[in-house]
Amino acid sequence: MIPISRNNKNSGHLFPLIQRQILSPPLIIIIPSSKMIHFVLLISRQGKVRLTKWYSPYSQKERSKVIRELSSLILTRAPRLCNFVEWRGFKVVYKRYASLYFCMCINQDDNELEVLEIIHHYVEILDRYFGSVCELDLIFNFHKAYFILDEILIAGELQESSKKTVARLVAAQDSLVEAAKEQANSVSFIISQATK
Amino acid sequence: MGSQGGFGQSKEFLDLIKSIGEARSKAEEDRIVLHEIETLKRRITEPDIPKRKMKEYIIRLVYIEMLGHDAAFGYIHAVKMTHDDSLLLKRTGYLAVTLFLNEDHDLIILIVNTIQKDLKSDNFLVVCAALNAVCRLINEETIPAVLPQVVELLGHSKEAVRKKAVMALHRFHQRSPSSVSHLVSNFRKRLCDNDPGVMGATLCPLFDLVSVDVSTYKDLVVSFVSILKQVAERRLPKAYDYHQMPAPFIQIKLLKILALLGNGDKQASGQMYTVVGDIMRKSDTTSNIGNAILYECICCVASIFPNTKLLEAAADAISKFLKSDSHNLKYMGIDALGRLIKISPDIAEQHQLAVIDCLEDPDDTLKRKTFELLYKMTKSSNVEVIVDRMIEYMININDNHYKTDIASRCVELAEQFAPSNHWFIQTMNKVFEHAGDLVNIKVAHNLMRLIAEGFGEDDDTADSQLRSSAVDSYLRIVGEPKLPSAFLQVICWVLGEYGTADGKYSASYITGKLCDVAEAHSSDDTVKAYAVTALMKIYSFEIAAGRQVDVLPECQSLIEDLSASSSTDLQQRAYELQAVIRLDAQALENILPLDASCEDIEVDKGLSFLNSYVQQSLENGAQPYIPESARSGVLNISNLRSHDQHETSGHALRFEAYELPKPAMPTITPASILPSTELVPVPEPSYMREIHQTPAVPSSSHSGSAELKLRLDGVQKKWGKPTYSSPVQSTSNSDSQKTNNGAAQPEASGSIKQKARDVSHDVKRQEVEVPSEKQRLAASLFGGAFKSEKRQPAAGNRGAPKANNNSTENSHITKGATSSEPTTVKTTPTQPPPDLLDFGESTVTSSAPSMDPFMQLEGLVDVTQDGSAVNSGSVASKASDFMSLYGEMSGSVPSNLVDPLSTDSIVVNTSSDLLNASNNFDHGASVVAQPPQSTNKGPNLKDALQKDALVRQMGVTPTNQNPNLFRDLLG
Fold first, then answer.
1. Are B524 and B488 in contact (CB under 8 A)?
2. What is the dihedral of CA B607, B612, B617, B619, to 10 degrees?
3. Structure confidence by residue, pLDDT tens digits, B627-661
4. Contacts B132 to A, Cβ<8 Å
5. Three-class secondary structure of residue A44 per DSSP
6. Most CB atoms within 10 A, among B281, B584, B696, B788?
């Protein structure tokens, strides 16, 4: 408690060895993981959540908190500023498309510009898939957006950088879905409508 | 596809989405969702739901979960859906579980079986869906269940499956590296996959593997380089192009890997130069992705073995970034600058203006990044400007996370580069005032130590000036509301120790202030404890000085309050205070000597002073000491120990670690209680052991003299640790504190045991310190060898304390140096020409208050050498710093290879050497320094960084303003 000195009164060496340890980097890394993207967040300009994908474990409570913090942080930023914000020792890269903000949370030492382009890559694929995508497409077909995202990112890493390949895979899945849907339409859909 | 309802959802669902979309407030949205949850809960448990309907329910569950509500009631249905045969439903099921469940969820065990089955499916889409789930859901326990199948899928005919299998293995590796360590070779194989997508995916696990263990992947450098080359030459299918760039994401990943592989490896780096250079040349700086690649190239160049050409290209790229209008690019530029500055420190200076612009930018992100850069380039000449800026910024932000961050950076820089102690204290005051609860308590202890020890010169006037200024500033501050606890502790300690020292303030004034502190922070026991101890010190100083003490009524009531406090620590302090003020001047002088917190302690390791006592006891028939290991029966000490431990554990409400040994009796009364005080062993096992090991302490020592021991105990408690936080630190501190005060006077044998404990403890500490002591010496000896060029003042100064600290070896040098110091100080300033003398410091100080950007630049980037602002009034010690700098430079400038600092500072130089050296440098500077700015600045920056790195490595903080180096030079 009380400062002491051991034979260093004259040495001018004022600080103990221990202090180095005190000043270890104060970053609180919540998840010690090498993964690149911790979560993907789509929020509207009004702060409404359009899509969330968590690659690191967060409880439902933490998720709400993260969304709240980030929307107040990002939605209030003026245009023409950086597309990055520092947040709790991480960096959140965001980009606004019309009224929708795409956000991805990455580690301190990741390449922000690259992540910015991953966002754009995703948007371009969505655009190709929906045909001039707008926020409404994502509102009503958020599960589609999830399927597409799953083809681009896996466990927080970029798995496929070719738009064509992603589009082909999603289309292959959809064709099966369409086939199944026709089947469904014929029987159960009618029943369900009838029983409603 | 229409935007609404294109996929056959029911009207009900569409209505839900619409109503949520139209909700005006969060509350309204919540209401709608809660209603929806009720509906779903009811519906989903109905029997015989058509599968299609069920799928929609699951999607609705996903929706409400996405909106932040709990859909746990439906998880099991999502799990059930993964069992379905139809891909449509299965896929939805998998999507839902990957969104719902974390990998430690109980339900996962129910999915594993399905996943196993699906991984064997002949429909590759089913396999893909299962692999997606594998990546998300399989945890360490369940890896073995799916691992064989995933490995098998690495050879699947569909590239999409192979790719996902690679990613799944990567995920396993992240989860539990040991589980897949035997499969690592598969990643190497997949690197040669025909499909670029699979190859690209393989780079993710390889990046992880390389970052863990570089050496085993050096053989892949050739492969990576050739892949990168092919990618850059557009050999990959067009489909991988992105905005006219060939497979940029793969390029970036490869560059990241190469940066790791080439780090510190000249040979490996040599293979990369061409391709990295090519990519930098070709990169398209108009597109974002082009800049992303360029940035990655800079990172790579900064990481691999330096190559001049590439560094130039990187510097060019950075200046383009910084000159750009885009904030993003500026940000990247600042970041890249921070990386490159480690290698070529002089590049910062070209961008001074840009850096200042970024610092002034309204964009917080950019500002913070710039602070990070400044932090990296801080040195003693610019520390004032930088830290002032940081504090100014710190005061105005609310983000506690970042506030902590920047506060500790301020503290770190201030401790490392402080130009003067006065400045240091002012700076610390500011940091404490605004972020005191966020910084580490040890910072406060360091501050106290600095005030106690002063400049480290034998200049008592300077020390007392420092203390008076500290006291002044604290008396000003202390009345302010909401001061953080740590800061109040410092204030109380300093006021107690030095409040009345210069006679400026009366004891009653100081004690009044202290009482105010204690009253204003009645909920903070630690602060109160500090305040009481401070009061005690003030009073005893007064009594010892022969003055009449009248305890203020408010102090009296405070003491009475505290003696009934629920905290035993406070109680004890209060009682001690009451006892102490009744003692006479003579006794108090011994208990609480004035300004004794810094007294040195001679540690007698062998405890030889006990020999006669032991001898005497043996002659009187005492049992000889038996080492613990040689004892068979349980001795009564250990009995006592266990008893004591039992007792301590009886205090149910105490959660903190070991405390100092304390007598059971709160009051200090004559000899009757003494034996018990004596016998209470320290409730710390290691303590006990050490007592046993010291041969000179027989277990019978509690027959020792009563009075003296008693007194010492009292001292110990008074000076003992006033807080419970950071127990380890405080134990040792207060221990030696106790010895400081107690041992300052030669004590009789009564204090033997007490001392023995202290000593053993001290010894322990010392032993711990030895290796780092050595390291420091080594650093001071060889630290220069790492540097190719000159050193800067602070770095030079750092060498000296190291040498000095190793007192056994270097004491004679130090002594010699000390004696010759006065002459040095007088002669040196006149020697070098004034323009060279002005090495930035004076300009900085003068520029600090003004807001002229150019002046600030000088402070920040250290534009020195403009001979205009010679401040010949600058303190002699400063001048001596410069001299030492020149002394070192003179050796290093011509050779440019080895910094002979080590020899300079340790091997004694004559003063004429030094003078020669500085003269040499004059010539050297005129010849070598073309332009003078860059040569002088650059190395300084570099040194600052290297020093910082070294410092981190060593765990040592250098201090500035230390004239010892100079003494060494001249000694």
1. yes
2. 140
3. 777 776 545 554 555 454 444 444 444 445 556 66
4. 150, 154
5. strand
6. B696
